[in-house]
Design goal:
about 475 residues, five-stranded mixed β-barrel, 14 helices, about 20% strand, globular, binds adenosine-5'-triphosphate, binds manganese (II) ion
Length: about 475
């Protein structure tokens, strides 16, 4: 087969007039003479010049959009516009034909909705090539960040018997014949006879198990798939998504926020550096898209500016209580422009409120802390009630422009009595979580952690508008194609 050079390397080659072998997929074939070839290593195509007068016409006919070909030829300086080098083909072999009548991807602009329906082929477009190279860099950067800090990558289970948040939005895991499940004497499903001898589900978070690791290894992180059967058909929710969950012994909430902010900046900087060309392409794509919008809906910053801005500025940190005061006094609230008016202390913030804080009020990423305990999970560390007797927990959510919540975390409750009391209040079965409570019995220490939704990060960095476009094969209500 001979040695093949990737197109990215060829386009950067300082040497010319050498023989090269390239392989890839035809994007276009013009005038029986110019092939734009792409192999996914970069969005830039390599121009292949075909000596059509001396090429078999049946071979020329098989060089169609989508076909896989192998080319041997001379790498030469290009005379044409748009590229510095090109390949003068001496040998072309069609490895895989692509019937132009049937191939769904035409060399024109397709809508993102249409491309979602052909997600098996959308990798072959410039937009999705860029997105998935960026996603790759972000995930590598996440590992590099934690590895440099001596964190241990911990693989927490995907099948679990606990529902970490008690939110109940889980997918059941069973090998029962669903049309004929074994029943107990009282007519209920007899899970004792199921594969695990108890009800199990796909994990919604690796946190609880992550905490167990941190109580010995000090600093751990997970990076794996999580599943939520939430029936939310939004542009920011998936039924299967990837989450990064670090847990750190001896960290308080401030350490936790510092780490999260440092992580986000690190991975964005890494990707800006590594995928400059892709980010520039995506910046342009977004600019084109914004041109379709009415003036007042366009953002005043380009994607590149937004990313740079995020690196250059400290995230704004304030408490939930301070945020409520700002929101109450805000113009949209007074003019009754919010769908959910901000009235009292204690209710959860809606995404319109989060976006107001981030996009209008502070105009930068915001970290909100110390939420009312009644709207947060049982494991968050309880604060002393304030002067007015209001009870909060040491939670922190990071809110990003255009995204809303990107990180949710907290300092964990390490005091056994407080934790048990909270579990009782919230009806969380202590017997089932005996192993979690053991860490509070044996060598408990202050500790903290957070969850970063990986696709929301990819959304932010690529400037895409829908989370279904930043994961190869999205799972959402009524869709599990591919
Ligand atoms: P939201 O309020 O946006 O639904 P959440 O409070 O349910 O988020 P957490 O349980 O704190 O989120 O999960 C941690 C992180 O995981 C979130 O900050 C977000 O980035 C991401 N995340 C949560 N649910 C989803 C989902 N269904 N799809 C993709 N990412 C998600
Ligand atoms: Mn949620």
């Amino acid at each position: 087969m001979g040695q093949r050079t990737k197109i990215k390397a060829l386009l950067q080659s300082e040497q010319t007039n050498i023989e090269v072998t390239v392989k890839g997929w035809v994007r276009t074939f013009r005038n029986n003479q110019f092939i734009a070839l792409n192999d996914g290593s970069t969005n830039s195509n390599l121009q292949i010049v075909v000596d059509f007068e001396n090429t078999d016409p049946t071979l020329l006919k098989r060089i169609t959009t989508g076909a896989a070909i192998s080319v041997v030829g001379q790498l030469v300086a290009s005379l044409g516009k748009g590229q510095t080098v090109e390949v003068k083909a001496t040998e072309i072999e069609v490895l895989g034909d692509s019937d132009p009548e049937k191939y769904p991807l035409q060399p024109k602009k397709h809508s993102l909705e249409f491309l979602r329906e052909i997600a098996h082929l959308r990798f072959r477009t410039n937009t999705f090539g860029a997105i998935f190279r960026v996603r790759n860099s972000l995930s590598f950067a996440v590992h590099q960040f934690f590895q440099e800090k001596g964190f241990v990558y911990l693989h927490t289970p995907i099948i679990t018997a606990s529902d970490a948040e008690g939110a109940g939005e889980t997918f059941h895991v069973t090998n029962f014949d669903l049309l004929n499940t074994p029943k107990t004497e009282t007519g209920e499903i007899d899970f004792k006879q199921d594969f695990f001898g108890r009800p199990t589900n796909l994990t919604v978070s690796g946190q609880l198990e992550g905490e167990l690791g941190a109580m010995a290894l000090s600093d751990i992180y997970t990076f794996g798939p999580t599943f939520r059967a939430e029936n939310s058909n939004t542009t920011r929710h998936l039924a299967e998504f990837w989450m990064i969950e670090p847990e750190m012994a001896f960290y308080d909430l401030t350490d936790n926020m510092n780490l999260a902010e440092e992580l986000l900046k690190y991975v964005i900087r890494y990707t800006l550096d590594k995928n400059k060309e892709d980010i520039e392409f995506l910046t342009q794509r977004l600019e084109e898209e914004e041109k379709q919008k009415p003036q007042n809906e366009r953002s005043d910053m380009s994607l590149l500016d937004k990313l740079q801005f995020c690196l250059d500025n400290d995230f704004e940190r304030l408490t939930y209580t301070e945020a409520i005061d700002i929101l109450k006094e805000s113009t949209p609230n007074k003019k009754k422009k919010f769908q959910y008016p901000v009235e009292g202390w204690g209710t959860d913030l809606q995404s319109e409120h989060e976006r107001y804080l981030v996009e209008k009020h502070f105009k930068k990423p915001v970290i909100l802390t110390d939420y009312p305990k009644d709207i947060k999970a049982f494991y968050m560390r309880q604060n002393e009630p304030d002067a007015q007797g209001r009870e909060t927990v040491r939670a922190m959510d990071i809110l990003f422009p255009g995204i809303g919540e990107i990180v949710g975390g907290s300092q964990r409750e390490e005091r056994l009595d407080k934790l048990e009391q909270r579990m009782d209040e919230m009806g969380i079965p202590k017997e089932e979580l005996w192993w979690y409570l053991d860490t509070r019995r044996f060598g408990a220490c202050p500790h903290a952690g957070f969850g970063l939704g990986f696709e929301r990060l990819v959304l932010f960095v690529t400037g895409m508008g829908n989370i279904r476009d930043v994961i190869p094969f999205p799972r959402f209500p009524k869709n599990a194609e591919f």
